[in-house]
Design a protein that fits this description.
- By secondary structure, the chain is α+β, with helices and mostly antiparallel strands.
- The chain folds into three domains: 12-99, no CATH class; 103-210, Tetrahydropterin Synthase, Chain A (2-Layer Sandwich); 216-274, no CATH class.
- Helix content is 46%, strand content 21%.
- The chain has seven helices and nine strands.
- Helix 6 runs antiparallel to helix 7 (259-274).
- The model has no long low-confidence stretch (mean pLDDT 80).
Length: 290
C-alpha cells in the first residue's frame, strides 16, 4: 500500500518574484547582446525566454482550506501538500486535487431481508472524509464511488444480521436498538473503507420499514405480539398481588380460608386484575357450601 507522506513546496509568494526577476534579467541580457542585431533577430532570441517564463509560472499552484494536492512525477508519488496558500513546484510535477472536507452520503432505499427473512426497506446516511490522500488516490479507482458502493453493501449485510423488531428482552433489533445498530453500521462501513484512506465519522439509519407487500400483515403481527407481551406482564403482576394478599391475610390472622375458599378468592382476584373491563360486583345470597 502507498501511504501518505508530506511534500514540502516553497511558497509561491517567494518563487513568483524570483522567477519574474530572473526572466527580466535574462531578457535584458539578451537585448544587450543583440543591440546591434536586427529586430527580427531580437524577436527570435526572445522567444525561448518567453516560453521559459510560461513554463516556470506553470509551477505555481494554490491549496485551498481543507484541500490537498497529491504530487506525482512521471507516475511516481512524491508526496502531498496540505498547507494552504500559494506554492511553487517543478512544473513537470502533476498536482491532483483531493478534498479533505466532511461529506454526507445518503444511500438509496434498499429492499433486503432481515434475520427473520422478512422483506424490509432500509436507507442510511454516512458522514465521511479523506484522511490519507495517497490511499484515496492510488488504492482505489474512484474513492467517492467506492464509498457509495461499500456503504450500500454494508447496510445490506447489516440488515441480515438482526430482526426488524422483537419483544424478547436482550435481543437486538433494528427498530428497538437504534444506537447499537448505528455503532455496528459505522464499524461495518469503516472496515470496508480503511483501504481507501477514508474515515467514517457517523453512520445512521434514516429509513426503516417493512416492504409494502407485507406491511399490513406485519402490523397485525406487531399488535398481536404487543398484546401478548402486555398480557404476560399483567398476569405476572396479578399472580404476585394474589400471592401477597393471601400471605397478608394469613400472617395477620384476618380470616382463615380453606383450600376451596382460597381457590375462589384467587379466581375472583385474577378476574378483577386481568380483565379488560371493570369487574361487575356480584351479590352472594348464600355461602360456598349451600
Amino acid at each position: 500500500m502507498i501511504n501518505e507522506k508530506a511534500y514540502s513546496a516553497p511558497s509561491g509568494w517567494v518563487a513568483l518574484p524570483v522567477i519574474l526577476l530572473g526572466i527580466l534579467a535574462l531578457d535584458v541580457t539578451v537585448l544587450w547582446l543583440a543591440v546591434e542585431d536586427t529586430a527580427v533577430a531580437r524577436i527570435v532570441m526572445q522567444v525561448p525566454w518567453f516560453f521559459l517564463t510560461i513554463f516556470l509560472l506553470a509551477g505555481l499552484f494554490v491549496v485551498n482550506p481543507n484541500q490537498a494536492r497529491v504530487v506525482l512525477l512521471f507516475g511516481r508519488y512524491k508526496g502531498t501538500v496540505k498547507e494552504q496558500g500559494l506554492h511553487w513546484a517543478n512544473p513537470l510535477l502533476t498536482k491532483r486535487k483531493v478534498s479533505l472536507r466532511v461529506r454526507n452520503f445518503e444511500t438509496e432505499r434498499a429492499k433486503v431481508n432481515d434475520a427473520d427473512g422478512n422483506p424490509i426497506e432500509m436507507a442510511s446516511v454516512v458522514v465521511w472524509k479523506v484522511v490519507d490522500t495517497a490511499e484515496a488516490s492510488f488504492e482505489v479507482d474512484d474513492y467517492v464511488n467506492y464509498v457509495h458502493v461499500q456503504s450500500e453493501s454494508a447496510l445490506r449485510n447489516l440488515a441480515t444480521l438482526y430482526p426488524y423488531d422483537t419483544h424478547n428482552e436482550g435481543t437486538v433489533s433494528l427498530r428497538g436498538n437504534t444506537d447499537e445498530i448505528a455503532t455496528q453500521l459505522q464499524a461495518e462501513v469503516q472496515s470496508r473503507l480503511n483501504k481507501a484512506g477514508v474515515e467514517v465519522l457517523e453512520a445512521r439509519i434514516t429509513h426503516l420499514a417493512y416492504a409494502p407487500e407485507i406491511a399490513s400483515a406485519m402490523l397485525q403481527r406487531q399488535q398481536a405480539g404487543a398484546i401478548i407481551a402486555a398480557r404476560t406482564q399483567i398476569v405476572e403482576g396479578a399472580v404476585s398481588m394474589v400471592e401477597m394478599a393471601l400471605e397478608k391475610l394469613s400472617d395477620q390472622h384476618i380470616v382463615d380460608l380453606d383450600e376451596e375458599r382460597k381457590a375462589t378468592m384467587v379466581s375472583n382476584l385474577l378476574v378483577v386484575l386481568c380483565g379488560d373491563k371493570p369487574a361487575q360486583p356480584v351479590l352472594n345470597a348464600g355461602s360456598l357450601y349451600q
